[in-house]
Amino acid sequence: MQPSAELLYRQMYKSRCFEEAVTRLWNDGHISAEMHLNKGEEAIVAGVLDHVTDGDAMALEHRGTAPLVMRGVELGLLIKEFMGLEDGLCRGMGGHMHLFSPEHLAASSGIVGASGPAACGFAFAAQHLRPGKLAVAFFGEGAMNQGMLMESINLASAWSLPVIFVCKDNGMAITTSSPEVTGGNLLTRARGLGAQAVSVDGTDVNEVWRAAHDAFQRAREGRGPTFLHATCVHPDGHLLGDPLLRIVRKPVRELKSRVAPLAKAAATGGSSLSEKAASLGSIVGMLGREWKSQRQGGSDPVERQRQRLPISDAERAELEAEVEAEVQAAVAAALRSQEGRG
Amino acid sequence: MTTMTFAGAIEDALMKAMSEDERIVIFGEDVHSIRMNLFTKFGEMRVRPAPISESAFLGAAVTASMAGLRPIVEIMMIDFIAVAVDALVNHAAKLEAFSGGRWKAPMVVRASCGGGYGDGGQHEQTLWGWLAQVPGMKVVVPSNPADAGGLMLSAIQDEGPVIYMEHKLLADYWIDGLADGGRTNLEYDIPEAGACGEVPKTWEPIPIGEANVLRDGDDLTMVSVGVSVHRCLEAAARLADRGVQAGVIDLRSIAPLDTDAVCHAVERTGRLLVVDEDYKHFSLSGELAALVMEAGIAAKFARVALEDTIPFDRRREAQALPNVARILEAASALTEH
Q1: Measured distance CA(A270)–CA(A272) in Å, rounded
Q2: What's the CATH architecture for A5-235+297-340?
Q3: Which residue from A minimizes the CA distance to B22?
Q4: What ipTM was estimated for this complex?
């Protein structure tokens, strides 16, 4: 079985276009506070969701936009929700970290790791009410150190629950390098808890699709959960306005207020000189990693899929224009709704 | 006197305390970047970034404190304490009682709290009433830089577990990181006197459980904590223009509560208005009403508090959180004859 390269590209491009529009709205101050994007994860989400059918459930984290876009939730409803409008997906009550769509059995949470237990419950309900259906949990590698997620993998194994645990690994837990706070190996850990475990390049939608294909088959046949580990890059950092990225992008402006207290802290009292040098070294290392992550151009999953589309340039341009028009119409409608509010 | 920001005052007090006492250690998620200056000064062994494993590292703080350290555990937002609350409710808070007073857990939990910047109901709660309900736990919530530094010293010196909450509207780095993210086109109702103000030349601990009477008034007593204290002060000034003299008490500590200060004032005014950013029911505001009744004081009572889940939409959020208009309305109803 082969996926449709064109369809996968359309999904990924739609998510990307949508999130670029969201970024502009956020920059213009139409969206308050935090905004976490799926940018960089499109291949993972598209490759997994291509196997999802009605009756399957999705447990989402604080990055729930792309899964809902790809499941076909009306774009206008999402934008209006992000803008806090009464006619948004959740009437402006939840915001982007708390998106819910009962029609799609999709529930989000801003609490790290919470998608694990949520997926187990959806899967347990599927065992009773919708045989052959399953639940997908999306989370980052940082969440793998959260007790409730590790417990969930064990629970899913013990009860043979049809869960696909999708771990999107960008190597960074906000500003913390994940390997520095993670013991052992995540695949071994998942296997130790009884799950089937597989790792793929999460910027290659075909790789993700194939791994997901096997995992979905296992789950639907009642053979238990799979831990699907997929690597990726977050070009916009942890959230829009990521403090580390701001330093990397505009060091002079962002560091101006930070340098004096930092120099004072380094100069006076406290730990030994070598310990201070180590601390400063790890701050520089953290900024360096962030800078490097900005330059991994080749790993853009949308661009990667674009390069291997089996359609003509004209056909591709037509597809992209269609998607762009849909996004633009949704943004325009949201802005009109906001205006009408007075 | 020196002027400092709210966050600057906490850091300054911590610099002093950590320089004087090597037992003080900080751990939590992203502390190497959030507490970059402390990390640089004291090194990774004393300012230690942790995995996203709140139940493990909060639980570890309890026994680390029992074994001689003075840990300050950082829970980025108080909402997240829910995943790890066992360490506090069933362990830290119980230790002194269970050991017959022979063993204590001198630890501080530092967390941001509060709303007013549009982050939704899972990232803007205060939860202090919920946490303060368990015997054996102290909860402090400073409303200005001077109290922020002084209460931090007391929290560190305390022999038991203390939850120290800093309101995000008062701490500039939280607004920068979570709300603005480099943008300059959004506005927040930040109380100036809370975000920046005078602090003592040398830090002295401010006793936990001691309220601060910020304003005297014979007609009405307003009792509050955190950012809402500033809303009360603004409302009191407007009430004075109308000839109503309202007093304002900043509790500073939720547990233990300064019952004497509250009762003393209410005895005089016969009217108590509690303004609380926490949930209304089963709460700090209800507790204050009960304490006044238990003291045998006949008083009229009203409260402005959070009635429901905080809406994400900033407009509805502003209505849901205690604001000056709602305080004035409640105060007028209480003082009408």
Answers
A1: 7
A2: 3-Layer(aba) Sandwich (3.40)
A3: A270
A4: 0.93
